[in-house]
Amino acid sequence: MPTPNPHQLPSRAWLTVGLLFLVGLLNYLDRIMLTTMRGSIMESIPMTEAEFGLLTSIFLWIYAILSPLAGFMADRFKRSHVIIASLFIWSLVTWMTGHATTYNQLLFSRALMGISEAFYIPAALALIVDYHRGSTQSLATGLHLAGVMLGQSLGFLGGWIAEKFNWNLAFNGFGLIGISYAVILIFLLREPVHTGILETTDTSKKKEDKKENIKFTGVFKIIFSKPAYIYLLIFWGFMGLVSWMISAWLPTYYQENFQLSQTQAGLYATAYLYPVSIIGAILAGVITDKWSVRNKYARVLVPIIGLAIAAPCVFLASYTSVLPLAIVFLMVYGFMRMTVDDNLMPIMCLFVENRYRATAYGVMNMFATMVGGLGIFLTGVMRDMSIDLGTIYQVAAFSLLVCILLLFMVKSNIKIEK
Question: What integer pLDDT is reported at residue 155 of this predicted model?
């Protein structure tokens, strides 16, 4: 059997990105949709600001705790199967959320959502880089993230549906859509023929033996022996803090600072921010892939440049009292933020072997979402203490500067392995 050409994309490489584009859209639509219907939910089910923040935090904490295990499962078994199972369970839980009538039921459904979604991202990103190993890696990752951003940009639909009809309808409808799409993926989503699960050209017997040798604790020892991974882990934790502090409370920020209705605030927080993030995801992928041909550190340098622009924009957005300026500054942040998301997995691919990548990403996801969930909850607590969101966003801007320093530390500890 001839050896596959490492520079030739396997069949279904771009189809897989397209299929996962839609899964990412559904996953993140649900996350943001909850924040845009805050008023309707709190009117239907009485709760404090901190309790409302806890709805997202509990999702993130469960999601975080299970992420390393989810990554290990994606390294141990077929990534396509993990993705399909995750989508089916996510859809069922989304439908169940629409039937919640008490705060405890709503909180429980969001915890279950964390279980279902934890298994998606590590498997999806690992499957994408299985297909795209060379000069298309950042673009393929970026196109998938464009689906994530599109889902977030459509999050305002939750506020609109809640205001025009009721908040339960949105969860019921998208849950049924997800179940239907999971059935479609059973027939379309596949592993790349040149790699399967492990990066090896051994016989099938040896592949199976090698899979059996992958131990959960052993993977931890391997990935944490790399200083670059430790710095990247801390970096992603800070990014989780910033991202969730901004996105989870952005509709509330617009509503309170500029006296907007729930629908208007949800529209400005999603429909303006995330479309430019989609453009950013695609352009950052193209630019990074082209630059990486000439500069082996391009996948680290592009995010550094992006964050250097994003940080002052978040700071200025927290100060201005002019709505159009706030929108523009936050749009620039959304655009530049994608230089990070496009390149996180590609950066990790520079020093983590294929067989450990989903687990390594799962660990990073755990840390980032634990920090992000804590940030959302503490933001709600600070609001109950009358601390305004402008001050909180200034802390987020400072955190982006710390992220730049951490990326330089990652770069200094990478030994490129071709």
Answer: 75
